[in-house]
Amino acid sequence: MHDTIAAISTAFGEAAISVLRLSGEHALQVAQRVFKGKRVLEALEPRVQHFGNIVDGEGGVVDSVLLTHFRAPASYTGDDVVEISCHGGILVTRRIFELLLHHGARAAEAGEFTQRAFVNGKMDLTQAEAVMDLIHAQSELALKAATQQLEGRLGKESEHLRADLIELLAHVEAYIDFPDEDIDPDTGAAMQKRLASIQLRVGSLLDTAHHGRILRSGARTVICGEPNVGKSSLLNLLSGFDRAIVSAEAGTTRDTIEEVLHIHGLPFVLVDTAGIREGAGSIEQSGIDRTNREMARADVILEVVDGSLPRDAARRVPGLEDRRGYLLILNKSDLGLHPSWLPDVERGAILLSCENQEGLDPLRAAMRDAVWTGAGAGNSHMVAINARHQACFQRAAEALVHGAAALKRNEAPEFVAVFLREAMEAVGEVTGRVDVEEILGAIFSRFCIGK
Q1: Which fold has domain 218-371?
Q2: What is the bridge-based pairing of β-strands 35-36 and 257-263?
Q3: Is the C-alpha dihedral spanning 345, 346, 349, 353 positive or negative?
Q4: Average pLDDT, stretch 142-153?
Q5: Which of 82, 240, 301, 323 has the most Cβ atoms closer than 10 angstroms to its Cβ?
Q6: CA nearest neighbour of 250 among 287, 270, 280
Q7: What is the rounded distance in angstroms from the CA atom of residue 150 to the CA atom of residue 153?
Q8: Which residues are CB-neighbours of 223 under 8 A, at least 6 positions away?
Q9: Higher per-residue pLDDT: 48 or 375
Q10: Which pLDDT does position 52 carry in this prediction?
Q11: 348 with 373: CB under 8 angstroms?
Q12: DSSP H helical segments within 59-122, as ranges?
């Protein structure tokens, strides 16, 4: 990775400024070929903006710019980096980019600057992934989680786990390789205790996968119920504008309607669905089928009923009450609550009036609690793993289960070592560090082997 790459780092379109970035062994030389200031670029102070012009091959001025250069390794990528801030026109930005390519740089591939930062040891894989999470964050909690991951919180926790596994594996490997040495390995009971502690910590990280998915993709929230109970009115009320058509005619909503909103700092993907009823026509039935599919993959289900009518008159969706994230909404409370619904209110059903906009705060709080509970939900130092981290930790957890079982059955230490090594490598993949040679270092530093 010694070639020099270039890219337009700001979004496409017109703006006050655009930023172009160079990184690589010859970044300064490429920039010097197009930048004309008071002095040569090599003599300019790093990390300070310098005014000058970008010129073409004939000496014509393309634009007046501010240029900043960062000397390796004190840069984002760990290589020499040059950043050029020009006027934010599409044409002028493209022209400067073409000049950089003409004078020796190549167009960077997607994510290549951050990839170089990882390769050069400026960040681990979790921090590299956090860069994109930070860019795509759509809520305060998502931003907070991405910032803490970028600062290395998840990486540090993973490395601590890996270090403990290396130490444990070093004991087992030493006992296998030097059975006659005067080494006092951990007893089986003590090793089981240490394994159990590591399993608990891996399990705690796995428990945050749900929160990570919610922060990155949003909680899929399906509004369901009979026609004319106020589903579309609820969508409009939560959204703050008329997103769905509201009509007294049954079957108005025949397809799913989606809207993204934020509640207590969490993203929710709100889905208004077709009213569920018997005797629907073929088109309306197609919408009902989509409703059933949406409910099957929902994180939160808001079943809306007309609370002013008797409970027995409501056509409910069977089996929903046992689902995680289920909330019963008793709408039309402005018309008075029918007494038959009182037991449901005692069990947590939410009174709502879309007409008078009453009951929204309890509903929002209940929606938050439906998806943001359990491990890490109230933690100010938030860790929220993504799908890749989850797969790695899941493999580690499975290997630890097998290792603990082998240890409990008093199987040969070679079997225990195999499972510990699998767990260590899986945890190492989280940060991008898989170096089995470290085990040898741990063995020889801990025991007096070379006598």
Answers
A1: Rossmann fold (3.40.50)
A2: unpaired
A3: positive
A4: 89
A5: 82
A6: 280
A7: 8
A8: 231, 234, 235, 270, 271, 272, 273, 302, 304
A9: 48
A10: 94
A11: no
A12: 90-102, 112-119
- Two structure tokens written together for 158: 């993973």
- Just give the CATH number of 153-208+383-446: 1.20.120.430
Residue 323: its pLDDT value, please? Answer: 85
Binned at pLDDT 50, 70 and 90, residue 436 comes out as very low
CA atoms of 20 and 413, how far apart (whole Å): 56
Within 10 angstroms of residue 46's Cβ, the number of other Cβ atoms is: 13
391/414 Cα distance (integer angstroms): 25
> CA 196, CA 418: separation in Å to the nearest integer?
17
Rounded (10°) CA dihedral 93, 97, 98, 104: 160
Count of positions (residues) in the chain: 451
| Average of per-residue pLDDT across 352-375 | 88
Average pLDDT over residues 366-382: 70
Are 172 and 416 contacting, i.e. CB atoms less than 8 angstroms apart?
yes
CATH superfamily of 5-119: Probable tRNA modification gtpase trme; domain 1 (3.30.1360.120)
Identify the band that residue 275 occupies on the pLDDT scale cut at 50, 70 and 90: low
Q: What is the DSSP letter of 290?
A: H
Q: Is 390 helix (H, G, I), strand (E, B) or coil?
A: helix
* Per-residue pLDDT tens over the stretch 197-253: 999 999 999 998 988 889 888 899 999 888 888 888 898 888 876 544 444 444 444
Task: For CA atoms 287, 292, 294, 299, give the dihedral sign.
Answer: positive
Bridge partner list, 36: 53
Q: Do 223 and 274 meet the contact criterion of CB atoms below 8 Å apart?
A: no
Give the domain ranges of the chain: 5-119, 153-208+383-446, 218-371
> Is the C-alpha dihedral spanning 317, 323, 325, 326 positive or negative?
positive
- The tokens for 113 are 């600057």
The strand order across the sheet containing 81-88 reads 35-36, 50-55, 61-70, 81-88, 15-23, 5-8, 106-107
Could you tell me the two tokens for 27? 């970044």
Closest CA to 270 of 259, 278, 280, 281: 259
